[in-house]
């Protein structure tokens, strides 16, 4: 039965994929009448509705209800939900307002949680909108897009500094991007069913049992919101490239190359240039005019112009070119401080926990942070982070055993492992117990940036993305011997349905079979 269920999912995936490819092709050809017809066909198809319900019932928010407190947690409810996704009689409900802390740990970020049926309806229409968004997107836009990541954006920053004439950087930050986007602009320019879009934008939200209307912005928390934000900001790179072509001297610029490059991740972006005057006098006003049409504006405190020798922070990295021409990317000081503060809080709060329990809390944090920065030149930073973590653990051991000697504490919590002395370990009943990962043990590997023109809905790039996915899966299994062995033994295929195992589908292992399985299998 599980195999039969996954075969149905495969059929639904193929049906939706076929329509999405046709939408992308029609968009590329400028046949907007055919685009609308294919969008309607997709949003009314059973396969599209089934995949939309599947998405909202399998993601991290599947147990988070909206204002109606309804979740779809049984097969019967999921099946009924597929049949509920109809245009006739559909009326979106207000969002449930919740607050989460921002990265600074002080201010709070508002999120709007839609109901399950609203989430599914948004996911359904996003299936029809995303092929258009990917086809028309800026080449160097990397946030909230398929097959693109922060690592791609950082690598493009590294590439942009190759030209010696690139001297100045405009670090741009859009103030309250999601909360301020103009509803009128979205309704006039986003190619989707405007009746649905208007109802989602005007649905309002409930905060502390009080209803509030929404006159601007798209809610952070909605499935379609990131794509709408990207749609509003796409086009800025094309405008800059038309006015300042890459690698082409301009008469208006004294016969020199202006070295204008644009790189954006969500609402954060940078613009490079040869001169500070060009950024201040021409490019920044052009960007402000572009944003003003969409109801947005730059943040005056976070938008600054810096020289490449001073470096700039972008997505948790510091990018800099030194006077000798060498380019260097490393974790930013702010990012390292935030990470170490979180580690120290975790260790301080675990005074009554065992070493094994503490390691279970620390290892995912260390592994995630190190993997995020493993594409940059950061061995010295990794070593310093390991030293700071060791210092915090030693203080933790002293507080737990104030009457014991240093030799006793070392023998109880630290040992030599894999040629490394002072390796923190936890005592457990089986074998040696867990050991704390070291950031410096993460190998540094240069990231290969995705091609700017690559479109996941273009059949011409299907093999290209399959190869990148396979490379990502090999990296995903790095350090896990069993999974890596199974990946090569099974040639990357699920042993039940004989389909490629991808990051989206996930894989698991069982002690009895030692086979890699799809979650659905």
Percent of residues in β-strands: 5-15%
Count of extended strands: 15
Are there runs of 5+ residues with pLDDT below 50, and where?
507-520
Q: Give the integer mean of the pLDDT values.
A: 88
Structural class: alpha+beta
Largest sheet: 4 strands, mixed
**Strand order, biggest sheet?**
2-1-4-5
Radius of gyration: 26 Å
Percent helix, as a range, is 40-55%
Number of helices: 18
What is this structure, in a nutshell?
With 521 residues, this protein is of the alpha+beta class. The protein has 18 helices and 15 strands.
Describe this protein's structure:
With 521 residues, the chain is α+β, with helices and mostly antiparallel strands. It contains 18 helices and 15 strands. It has helices at 2-29, 32-43, 46-58, 75-84, 116-136, 150-160, 177-180, 183-189, 194-201, 225-233, 236-243, 276-292, 333-349, 355-372, 379-400, 406-413, 462-476, 481-489; strands spanning 95-101, 108-113, 168-173, 205-207, 210-212, 261-265, 268-273, 304-307, 312-314, 317-321, 327-331, 414-417, 420-424, 508-509, 516-517. A four-stranded mixed β-sheet has the order 2-1-4-5, with no helix packed on it. The protein has a four-stranded antiparallel β-sheet with strand order 6-7-3-8, with helices on both faces. It has a three-stranded antiparallel β-sheet with strand order 9-10-11. It is globular, with a radius of gyration of 26 Å. The chain starts with a helix and ends with a strand. The model is unreliable at 507-520 (pLDDT under 50).
